[in-house]
Specification:
The chain is mostly helical and 162 residues long. It is built from 2 helices and no strands.
């Protein structure tokens, strides 16, 4: 039978799942950085085939430049940290989802048990009503026979319906 505690638990799991999913979505959106724009130099005044507002290529630092290596190292560290955070959030989500699905399965099992008990109770009530109806019909027949003169059927019934 589904009780109030089960209903509240299921609602809490559903709310937790939605909250966690929303938090993961918001955290992912906030963690993203806007794309960096490369500085553009003023367009040359000479008559070239490039449009006036076309960006001028920025000089690329040589491969051994310590500033570039440091930036690459920092970017790799940030990416690794973000990946670890994403994996942790994904694990939390999967755990919450598994708990939610377990709650749904438990609710389904409780509902099935309740319906089984309801059907058993209905069958028992139908049997009891049928027994009562049969005993009442026998009693009415005995009363009619007694009034018609059959004194053997005037005695009290052998068993009284419950």
């Amino acid at each position: 039978m589904i009780d109030v505690k089960t209903t509240i638990t299921l609602a809490a799991f559903a709310l937790a799942g939605l909250t966690l999913a929303g938090g993961l979505f918001a955290a992912g959106a906030m963690a993203q950085k806007p794309p960096s724009t490369a500085p553009t130099a003023a367009a040359p005044t000479s008559s070239s085939s490039a449009p006036a507002n076309a960006p001028v290529p920025v000089e690329v630092a040589p491969p051994g430049d310590p500033g570039v290596s440091e930036l690459n190292h920092d970017a790799a560290a940030e990416a690794a940290a973000q990946n670890a955070a994403n994996q942790a959030r994904a694990a939390e989500y999967e755990a919450a989802r598994a708990a939610y699905l377990a709650g749904v399965a438990a609710a389904d099992a409780a509902r099935a048990e309740y319906e089984r008990q309801l059907a058993a109770n209905a069958a028992a009530a139908a049997r009891a009503q049928a027994e009562y109806d049969a005993a009442y019909a026998r009693w009415q027949a005995d009363v009619a026979a007694c009034r018609a003169g059959n004194r053997a059927r005037c005695a009290a019934p052998a068993s009284v319906p419950k």
